[in-house]
Specification:
This protein is an alpha+beta fold. It has 21 helices and ten strands. Helix 14 packs antiparallel against helix 15. It binds adenosine-5'-triphosphate and magnesium ion.
Length: 441
């Protein structure tokens, strides 16, 4: 009886909604596990204030997905029928960002709650001048406001298109995301090929979520990826870099890397690496990249600091190393300038695909350039290297190289020992004539 009353209340509430929501899309509070206790105080403040002012206000996207799965959301995004200007007038601590499609950022100290007005879908009743496509069908402008249901339809995956409505704590689930959450399935909304053409980055996102959530990619969502991976060439190198950080800094880099290669996506992010990895006469490059990712994952899991630059240094090491070898032979340049030239060329070429910002490439360059200096273990040179500000990272990189057999383990052990040796031991170790194992060919 009580349940019936609750349900009839919900039916009444939904009859008053402006959007055409049928009751089957509403999951009432008792039928889901999303609790306000797990929503950030600031997000709740924003939701309540919008609601009190008469607007529809919902938590949306990754936060609803993660809460439904019992995970802790990274951030809380809000969607509303209030216009950005309406939002701005409600919050003192608010800034509007974006030119094409304006978003409101509500600030609480360092915490930002992003508030977006429901957006219309590109392929619905939008006139041609409101929407233009690239040759590949990608949406270039999608700056039309819409209903909540349209807003749901233009999101990427069903599990990312659920709305937690602050009005009655129900979940509005127009795309049947909750069913996919329960079954652990990632399913793109709409016609898969068209959605990937609109925005090829969705192919990277599906891989990221599959690994992060441990979900299976639905067959129809998965199949087109093999053929469409090349569309990533159309994406700006800086956007690919942003995505690539999310892919590799999530604590599951190794699994992500393997899945990206499986779908042929990695080749468009790091083409030189893919080429180098597919040379079959040795397998140490792939071991090196995999080990660097494993180390990063472990460090992240135990709360240690990591820099994306280390992973990028390992991803691009094999192309750099091969090119340096070639320049050394073909141009008759000594090892060090050959390495410098190879680094410059590789970074330049890479910047046309996944651009690596200067603050990281400076680190990578140093770590790579120092590798050659590890071979000199006599006289004053080891002391100089030890006091180099980048020694630690370069040494960690040397260990990776030794771990996969690219340089001798003896050399790595020598450096491990040298760091902790007393000064008289150091003196002995650096005497001329003493050389740890030479580089393998
Ligand atoms: P994360 O936990 O990694 O932040 P998220 O789902 O919140 O995951 P965001 O990149 O923060 O991912 O995006 C927020 C929401 O915006 C998504 O849940 C999805 O609904 C929508 N979205 C983001 N990127 C796209 C895209 N390329 N195409 C369609 N919808 C997208
Ligand atoms: Mg998010």
């Amino acid at each position: 009886m009580v349940l019936f009353r609750k349900i009839s209340k919900i039916f009444k509430a939904s009859a008053n909604r402006s959007e055409p929501s049928s009751a089957s899309h509403i999951i009432p509070r008792p039928q889901h596990n999303i609790s306000r206790e797990n929503i950030s105080e600031n997000a709740l403040k924003v939701l309540y204030r919008l609601h009190k002012a008469g607007y529809q206000a919902c938590l949306v996207g990754g936060a609803v997905r993660d809460l439904a799965l019992g995970l802790e959301p990274k951030d809380f995004d809000v969607a509303t029928d209030a216009s950005p200007e309406d939002v701005k007038s409600l919050f003192r601590n608010c800034r509007l960002i974006g030119r094409r499609f304006r978003l409101a950022h509500v600030f609480y100290g360092r915490d930002i709650i992003e508030v977006a007005t429901f957006r219309g879908s590109g392929d619905m009743d939008v006139s041609a001048d409101q929407l233009s496509h690239s040759d590949e069908g990608r949406i270039l402008r999608d700056n039309v406001y819409g209903s909540i249901e349209e807003d749901a339809r233009r999101r990427d995956f069903t599990v990312n298109a659920m709305y937690y409505d602050i009005r009655d704590f129900s979940v509005l689930d127009y795309m049947d995301g909750m069913k996919d959450i329960e079954q652990g399935i990632l399913r793109i909304i709409g016609e898969p090929e068209q959605r990937y053409r609109e925005d090829p980055v969705r192919m990277l996102r599906v891989v990221r979520f599959a690994v992060k959530l441990g979900f299976k990619i639905h067959l129809e969502t998965e199949t087109p990826i093999f053929d469409l991976a090349g569309l990533l060439d159309d994406i700006s190198p800086s956007r690919l870099f942003d995505e690539s950080v999310k892919l590799f800094m999530s604590g599951q880099a190794l699994q992500t890397f393997e899945l990206l290669r499986h779908y042929g996506l990695f080749a468009y992010l790091y083409p030189m690496t893919e080429e180098a990895l597919s040379i079959e006469d040795h397998d140490f490059p792939i071991i090196l990249v995999s080990q660097a990712m494993k180390n990063t994952d472990e460090r992240l899991q135990s709360g240690k600091s990591v820099t994306p630059a280390f992973i990028y240094a390992s991803i691009l090491w094999e192309p750099v190393r091969l090119l340096a070898e070639r320049i050394n032979e073909e141009e008759d340049l000594p090892a060090f300038p050959a390495m410098q030239k190879a680094i410059a060329k590789t970074l330049q070429k890479q910047s046309q695909h996944t651009a690596i910002p200067k603050r990281f490439s400076i680190f990578m360059r140093e770590v790579w350039q120092l590798q050659g200096r590890f071979e000199f273990t006599t006289g004053m040179r080891p002391y100089k290297l030890l006091s180099h500000p980048r020694f630690r990272a370069a040494y960690d990189f040397l260990l990776l190289r030794a771990g996969c057999g690219e340089v001798s383990q003896e050399l790595a052990d020598w450096w491990t020992h040298f760091q902790d040796a007393t000064s008289s031991e150091k003196k002995k170790m650096t005497r001329p004539g003493k050389r740890p194992g030479k580089k393998k060919k």
